Every structure is written in C-alpha cells, then in structure tokens.
Amino acid sequence: MNKKIKKNLIEYGVFAVVILGIYFSGIHTEIIGFAQRGLLATGAMNPDIEKVEEDITEKGPTATKADFNLQLINSKGEKVSMEQFRGKVIFINLWATWCPPCIAEMPSINKMYNDIDKDKVEVLMISFDRKFEKAIDYKKRNNFDFEVYAPIAAMPRMYESQSIPTTYIINSKGELVFTHKGMADYDRQDFKDFLKSL
C-alpha cells in the first residue's frame, strides 16, 4: 500500500474515532444545539406573533379555553398544578436534553425569563427526558435561572405534541393564544412586548 493511501486511511480513521467519541459521550446534542443557535441568531426561526395578534383580535371571546388540569413536579420535588398560575400569562415550553433544537433555544428563553415580570408571567419548562435528573443537571450545568418541571400525570390533550420543542402561551384570561412548534428566539423585544400585552 502506498504511503499516500495509508496516510489518508489513518486520517479518516482518526476522524471516525473523534466523531464516534463525540456521539457516544453524549455531547453531540449540545454541539448540534450550539450550531443551531447560530441559525436562531439570523432571525429566520422567529415565531409569527403578528399573525397571533391578528387572530386574537378576530377571535375575540371565542378563543380556545386553556386546560389547567396539568400536574407537574419541579426540580425540588414539589408537586405543582397549573391551576395555581390561573390569572397569569403562562409560557409553556416542552423540551428534552436529547433534543438539539431545544438546547439551541434555551439561552434565549433564559434571557427572556430574566427580563419578564414574574408576578405577571409564569414560565413552565416541561422536560420530557425519561430521567428528570438529566433536565435538572442540564439546567444547573448551564446556570439557567428558570425552573424545570416534569409531568406527573398524562398531559392534557391540548398540550400533546408530536414534536419538541413546542411552545404554548396562555393569556391572563385563561385562553390558549399561541402555539409554536420548533425552535425560536424568544428574547426578542417584540416577543416580550407580546407577552406583556396578554
């Protein structure tokens, strides 16, 4: 075998070992999420809140009533019912640590969380990891300020989603006014103003 072919095989072998090492170490999700964060920075993945505002105006009193029968547990092991947040705007995000788009949008959600009036807006970051400890560890490792939750009963049908991340927003009147499937940048001023308007 000539030296050039041998050198190429060694290089490809090293590359394959590195890729497999990244994959089996579990950090590939965070690497992909970091790359997708760049896509979020372009503004191409922003939710269309103008359309939502138009729909709210058109629907008026016929907006969909939210289902408050959502039972959760937080990172401290405390049981939480969504009912206790009735009267507030509720930002619900379904996510998991194994989901790169979920990981990509987390920093923007954390920044948004730090800018909102927590007396008026509640953020429910609901993890779908099989082991809730993974979500708790991920939150701590990244110094996120929001609380993480896991469902302790079946999700109400209106919050079931075939994909994550999925975000729902319930206004202070208890109406489901916003659904977005896929990642988005939630730290935009127009989005924070939208939350305040609800």
What's the gist of this structure?
The protein is of the alpha+beta class. The chain contains six helices and eight strands, in the order H-H-H-E-E-E-E-H-E-H-E-E-E-H.
Description:
Helices cover 42% and strands 20% of the residues. The chain has 198 residues and is an alpha+beta fold. It has helices at 3-25, 28-41, 49-59, 100-115, 132-141, 189-197; strands at residues 64-65, 71-74, 79-81, 89-95, 121-127, 148-151, 166-170, 175-181. The protein is elongated. It is built from six helices and eight strands. Strands 1-8-7-4-5-6-2-3 form an eight-stranded mixed sheet, with helices on one face. The longest helix is centred in the N-terminal third of the chain and has 23 residues, at 3-25. It has one domain: Glutaredoxin (3-Layer(aba) Sandwich), CATH 3.40.30.
Largest beta sheet: strand ordering = 1-8-7-4-5-6-2-3
Tell me the Rg in angstroms: 20 Å
Q: In CATH's first tier, which class applies?
A: Alpha Beta
Question: Quick one: how many beta strands?
Answer: 8
Name the CATH homologous superfamily.
Glutaredoxin
Number of domains: 1
Task: Measure the end-to-end span.
Answer: 70 Å
Mean pLDDT: 83
Shape: elongated
**Total of helices:** 6
Largest sheet: 8 strands, mixed
Topology:
Blueprint: H1 3-25, H2 28-41, H3 49-59, E1 64-65, E2 71-74, E3 79-81, E4 89-95, H4 100-115, E5 121-127, H5 132-141, E6 148-151, E7 166-170, E8 175-181, H6 189-197
